[in-house]
What we know:
This protein is α+β, with helices and mostly antiparallel strands and 523 residues long.
Amino acid sequence: MLSHQHWSRVFNVNPDEIDYLINLLLEEETPMTSRELAVRLVSARLEKEKTILQEKYKDTAVYNPATTWEVGQKLVFPALEHATGRVIEIRDGDNPEYGDFRVIKVEFDDKSRREFASEYKLPHKLAEFSELTGNPLITGDALTVDDIMSESGEQIIQKLEQTLKANQTLVSIAKFWFPKELILPVDIGALHLAEAVLDMNGGGPMPTTEILEQMGGLGNYPLKLQELSLNYALNQDERFDEVGPTGKVLWYLSRMEPTEVRETPIYLRYTAIGYDRRLLTEQMIAYESEIADELSELDYVNTPTGTITLIYPHRRAGTLPINVHNRHIFPTAQRTNRIWITLVDVVDGAEYIGWVVPGQSYVYGLAPLYEKYRLPIGAKVTAKQGATPDRIEIDAHVHKARTEWVPVFRLQGDAPHFENIRRPVEADYDQLMLIGVDQLAELDQLVKQAQTGKKSLTAILKMLLPSLGKLTPQGAAHLKTIYTAVNLLRRCPPGPIFATLEANPDFTSIGGEYWKLFDDTVE
Length: 523
């Protein structure tokens, strides 16, 4: 019998097996999931293997050196991986040390020949081995479908899906498969009706079964077939967006999705800046990793929870970055660019609608929670998976308000200015990234100007460093503070910022992690 390793490592699907699965779908007239098809295929293979074994070991006896054999008998040898052969010759043994015994010559299926003892009276390890292993048809240790799927199911399903996707006659929606030619027709009237159902339900999200129920169904066909057919039709129509996580189909009207989900908020838009990473010092690389900006290319970290530090773009947009620390926590999807989730406040259990936008690495929908706790820039926010993949628990690490010195951003004319002011803070924060903002309208205007490319990264740094330096005894700003301040005006990961500081002689470091203008003036 084939081993677990065989099923996982060398499993491939041949054309005859694809035909078998297609015929199965045609006969049962019901869509099946990838797992259901994999189970059927494995079961069919096991039955085929059993038939081959039955033919191979039909009328065979298990070789035992103590047994008397006759010419023409078919034997199976457990110690030789259950090889089979026929006795073609028998002679007397000739070794006084072992007493009287006989020798049989066996010709195996591959025409090779070997001699073995028979009628052997002394104890022999092969006799015991034969009793333990026995005939492969009756030993009862063969792998079952459950055994194989438990050990190698994911690998089998993955390889099966790769083969099924290459077949032009099959359609797959939410891992359900069915022949394209048998999908139920869904006319424009039914699509209009589906749109009306979603519209009356706030745009969604709704599972296909509920849409079908409120539509009155697609006829007297199996429900699974109706589901797949409607899913297939909705998927072809731009009015509808599938927003469920992997394994769960949920539909939403595209026009009723939040603008911040369909379009990246202006505060999060990044125009890539080329830079030489060789300029970054080890200290800079360490801070880049600590900050873990979602735009930075960093090694993935798998932890039960993911904590981020809020910067202005995400605080203003009401979003949470998806970075190397929390990426695994949020649900994924095979087709959709947007995933509807529920955000749960761990403090009071309040629930909020959230949207995962994996292509742009952010989660939208946290503005109510941010505003409830008046989270500052620099606040720490932790996400962890809830009871189901589409429920995400959010911990803002709130506590009783404490009065702290907060660097507050203001404008003096057109120039950015920072001033330490005592403010109540109700949540944990990173001291080096804590910033307050009062003049949102004015700052928004600066952001728009920076987004249009009117100011270079060097120019922004020259605007910010003099005022930032006045906040510290060193007269210089920390790398993390500089990064946070730059992101008030322009979305940018740490790499280009740090490289610009290192490459431009107008900037100088004080002890490596603190930086200022070389002559403390803006040219």
